[in-house]
Design goal:
The complex is a heterodimer of chains A (267) and B (258). Chain A has 267 residues and is mainly β. Chain A folds into 2 domains: 2-216, no CATH class; 218-267, no CATH class. Chain A has helices at 219-226, 232-245, 252-265; strands spanning 2-7, 10-15, 20-28, 33-40, 44-52, 56-64, 69-78, 81-89, 94-103, 106-114, 120-129, 132-141, 147-156, 161-170, 177-187, 194-201, 206-215. Chain A is globular. Chain B is an alpha/beta fold and 258 residues long. Chain B has a single domain (3-257), classed as 3-Layer(aba) Sandwich (Rossmann fold). Chain B has helices at residues 42-50, 74-80, 97-109, 115-128, 146-160, 176-193, 230-238, 241-257; strands at residues 3-13, 16-27, 31-35, 55-64, 67-68, 82-85, 92-96, 139-140, 164-168, 196-201, 214-219, 222-227. In chain B, strands 6-9-10-3-11-12 form a 6-stranded mixed β-sheet, with helices on both faces. A 4-stranded antiparallel β-sheet of chain B has the order 2-1-4-5. A two-stranded antiparallel sheet of chain B has the order 7-8. In chain B, strand 9 (164-168), helix 6 (176-193) and strand 10 form a beta-alpha-beta unit. The two termini of chain B are 35 Å apart. Classes of the chains: A mainly beta (267), B alpha/beta (258). The interface between A and B is medium-sized, with 24 and 30 residues.
């Protein structure tokens, strides 16, 4: 497994094969923005870990080369982050990306360019929000037969609020594209959250779906779990783990780490 | 000896009285079957014993082993030993059967929980119920057929070993083979563990496998007739109509008395 660890504004550790290149890193002193470029040029898996105890701004470009199958897992913990991503996917490439966040505030802008034909992204974002979080995720289907699956799952606790803005674009002539969005927020406090799903499609030959949910866990689900002897907190703990960890392939170490974070609030 | 005692229970759901002056007592080793037409309050009874939110007890008490459970939380009732096998078990995304059962047993047994014993018992029970072994690692009831869901309820009953079992229409949605497995497995548990048991059903077919010691007919939120298993044959022959009439009289008499 390839690995990059970023602590505050410094890349503190890398373990990369020849299939992953961390080719460019600069610091803009005026705007205090760090720029990072990651090229995935061969089939590979990458883990990126962010640990920051000060407010941080990052600008990251991830490029997936033609025909490459890439798998990225990101875990972020710490303080306020302003982060801007750009993903460029070439012809016949695919990217499966899963992110788990536990940060004291975040503003994130993700722009995904499915540049090549048959390019494909499977994007999963899971977050526990304790303060304000805002995400703008935009997918541009520039290649024919390109596919996007955007799945965002958030749970709010303490003063957490989440805004998901998710937009998919298909211009005229880009036939055979598939767009799927599934955005869900389980609101375990009384703060206001929002989801803005948008599909901007100027082509007939497209399959597009979206679903959005903001609410609590179902009363029936809690009753079912509690009827087997689990307390309300234990039941919510299980449901939160299910909600955030389903469809994520985590190592045992990461699973334990995420479980410990969840156990802090619901035990 | 475990005893569930329901006395003069009146229950309101969404501003409508569903159970009216309901009385029932079930002791360890007894299997009580409640039968009745649709909408008569049978499922309400099972849910109110378990503490389903929104089901309000207007009057009366539910007591289990001397503890009034009216105001107890759902999990505390479960910890007392009450188990409800549900008519329509829910799908729960992301929570596997194994994790769920392990958590539930952990909550019940605390430091006495033994993982090896848990795995062994789970394996033998899954085999007895002729369930696919993979199902234990799948999300709770997700993609399960009706029969698989009901078997999963019976599996949970065996794992949690309750002293009071309520099975709410455990026969609904089952094919002939699944009905036999679910029915005989439930009866086996009743014979081995001798819990106080309450079976809610519409049909005689479940009672070919589960042999009740007491049979009750419920109409309009009250028991209108009680007897032994011969009452089941009477229902099969005559239907519920004649009991409905006597049920109406019973309600009228009760109202008049008030």
């Amino acid at each position: 497994m390839n690995k990059i660890i970023i602590e505050n504004d410094i890349v503190v550790q890398t373990k990369l094969s020849s299939k992953v290149k961390l080719s460019f890193l600069e610091k803009n002193e005026d705007f205090i923005v760090n720029k990072l470029v990651i090229d995935m040029i061969g089939d590979s898996k990458l883990e990126i870990e962010y640990r920051n105890d000060t407010a941080l701004k990052l600008d990251i470009l991830i490029r997936i080369s033609e025909g490459v199958k890439a798998d990225i897992f990101e875990i972020r913990k710490g303080n306020l982050m302003k982060i801007q991503y750009r993903y460029d996917l070439d012809t016949n490439s695919s990217l499966s990306i899963a992110k788990f966040y536990y940060i004291n505030g975040i503003k994130e802008l993700d722009t995904i360019y499915l540049k090549g034909e048959n390019s494909k992204i499977d994007y999963k974002l899971k977050t526990i929000s304790t303060v304000r979080e805002k995400y703008d995720i935009t997918v541009h289907h520039e290649g024919k037969n390109s596919e996007s699956l955007i799945e965002t799952n958030g749970v709010t606790v303490l003063n957490g609020t989440i805004d998901f803005h998710v937009s998919g674009f298909v211009p005229n002539g880009k036939t055979g594209c598939v767009l799927n969005q599934n955005n869900r927020i389980v609101n375990l406090n009384e703060q206001k959250c929002s989801i803005h799903p948008n599909l901007f499609i100027d082509e007939y030959d497209v399959i597009a779906n979206h679903s959005a949910f903001i609410g609590k866990f179902k009363e029936e689900e809690l009753f079912y779990l509690e009827s087997r002897g689990l307390s309300e907190a234990e039941s919510i703990n299980l449901l939160v783990k299910g909600f955030l960890l389903s469809n994520l392939e985590l190592s045992n170490k990461r699973k334990e780490e995420v479980n410990n974070i969840i156990n802090q609030y619901w035990r | 000896m475990h005893i569930l005692k329901i006395e003069h229970l009146t229950v309101e759901v969404e501003k409508k009285i569903i159970l009216h002056d309901f009385n029932l007592e079930i002791k360890s080793g007894e299997v009580h079957a409640i039968m009745g037409p649709n909408g008569t309050g049978k499922s309400t009874l099972s849910k109110v014993i378990m503490g389903y939110p929104g089901y309000h007890i207007i009057e009366g008490t539910i007591t289990f082993d001397g503890t009034i459970v009216n105001d107890l939380s759902v999990d505390k009732r479960a910890k007392l030993g009450i188990f409800l096998g549900m008519q329509m078990p829910l799908e729960i995304e992301g929570v596997t059967n194994a994790d769920f059962l392990r958590s539930a047993l952990n909550a019940k047994e605390n430091e006495n929980f033994n993982l090896m014993k848990f795995i062994k018992k789970l394996d033998t029970t899954v085999e007895m119920l002729e369930m696919n072994k993979d199902m234990i690692h799948r999300d709770i009831n997700q993609g399960f057929s009706g029969g698989e869901r009901k078997k999963n309820e019976i599996l949970q009953m065996y794992m949690l070993k309750p002293s009071m079992v309520i099975l709410d229409e455990i026969d609904s949605g089952l094919d002939v083979d699944s009905l036999k497995i679910v029915g005989t497995s439930a009866m086996k548990y009743f014979e081995e563990e001798a819990p106080a048991a309450l079976i809610i059903t519409h049909y005689q077919r479940l009672l070919e496998y589960i042999k009740p010691t007491h049979v009750h007919i419920m109409i309009d939120g009250s028991i209108v007739k009680s007897g032994d298993s011969s009452l089941v044959e009477e229902i099969e022959t005559s239907g519920y109509d004649k009991f409905k009439k006597s049920g109406t009289h019973a309600m009228e008499a009760s109202n008049h008395h008030e």
